[in-house]
Amino acid sequence: MRSLSMPAALGVDLTLKKRMCFRKRNSNTPNFNDKLRDDDDRNRRISYDIKLETIQNCEASAQPTAEEVRSWAQSFDKLMKTPAGRNTFREFLRTEYSEENMLFWLACEDLKNEANKSVIEEKARMIYEDFISILSPKEVSLDSRVRDVINKKMAEPSIQTFDDAQLQIYTLMHRDSYPRFLNSSIYKSLFQRPSSTSSES
After folding, report:
1. What is the pLDDT of residues 155-165, one digit of tens each?
2. Mean per-residue pLDDT for 37-52?
3. How far apart are CA 51 and CA 127, in angstroms?
4. In this structure, is residue 15 part of a structural domain?
């Protein structure tokens, strides 16, 4: 093999050094790193939103039976324990412009099922931005004590970070929205529908 002449070899070496310096210089600039971080955050956010939307939209897999529907009037707990009950109640909350309460509750339940520490931190941050931040259009109504607790826990998020807030929103839905739900046309119309056990034409 013919070896490169000294000037040619030097030229190749200088070209490689220039490329390396250019990459290093650009990778260390705030704009370059910020863009990568923003893109990464955006991709994670889209992925989380899609997952949460799937949970919200696909909970009810079957039409509730008349027996199930009647059981929802016995207690709020029974309503919230069934996917069909949660979806029907969420439909009612949407008519009262308070759907964010159910969305927050669902997001907290989703967080509790997570085991990966970095994912927990990411989901907790997104829940905070979506439902706790005063800048969010989906902000839920919480008292100052609970907000202070959350703000302290956000320094090191865990699956328990929103426990107090979730309980407060659950109680709010139970005391405020649930009685109106039982008297709503949405709930009453369920008794006119054929049961899921009925034969379909």
Report:
1. 999 999 999 99
2. 53
3. 13
4. no
Select from 66, 138, 153, 132 the least CA-distant residue to 97: 138
Whether 197 is in a domain gets the answer no
Report helix, strand and coil shares of the chain as percent, to nearest 5: 70, 0, 30
Q: What is the pTM of this model?
A: 0.69
User: For residue 134, what is the domain's CATH number?
Assistant: 1.10.167.10
User: Is 142 contained in some domain?
Assistant: yes
Query: One-letter amino acid identity for 15?
Result: T
Which among 65, 61, 79 is positioned nearest to 182, based on CA atoms? Answer: 79
The b/e string for 61-86 (b: 16+ C-beta within 10 A; e otherwise) is eebbeeebbebbeeebeebbebebbb
Residues 6+ apart with CB under 8 A from 104: 127, 130, 131, 138, 140, 165, 166, 169
In this structure, is residue 87 part of a structural domain? yes
Q: What is the total count of domains within the chain?
A: 1
Our measurement of the distance from residue 142's CA atom to the centroid of its chain's CA atoms, rounded to an integer in Å, reads 18
Residues of the domain holding 184: 64-189
